[in-house]
Design brief:
This protein has helices spanning about 5-15, 20-40, 70-75; strands at about 80, 85. The protein is mainly alpha-helical. Strand 1 (about 80) and strand 2 form a beta hairpin.
Length: about 90
């Protein structure tokens, strides 16, 4: 199957209506886009200054601090049986 036939099939599946007089122009543009995408895929990108990659991000460790439950419960505005009392949410 040629590239043009593949593109016709993709256009049909995408429900694109391409008139006969537009097909050559459309297909040449689409092939240009696909060729460009292939070049981008094959390109080896170098790390540039100012660009941050996920592996370079240093995250802090979370520290667990034990607190007394009574201290927290005493700060509740409304409480019931040592539980925070809140309005009903629907």
């Amino acid at each position: 199957m040629s590239k043009k036939d593949e593109l016709k099939k993709i256009a049909y599946l995408a429900r694109l209506e391409i008139k006969d007089n537009e097909s050559d122009s459309f297909f040449s543009k689409i092939l240009g886009v696909l060729d460009y995408m292939k070049k981008v895929q094959d390109h080896k990108f170098l790390k540039k200054e100012g660009v941050v990659f996920e592996k370079d991000i240093l995250l802090r460790n979370d520290d667990v601090i034990n607190t007394k439950d009574k201290y927290l419960i005493d700060q509740f505005i409304e409480k019931e049986n040592n539980l925070l009392k809140v309005k009903k949410v629907l």
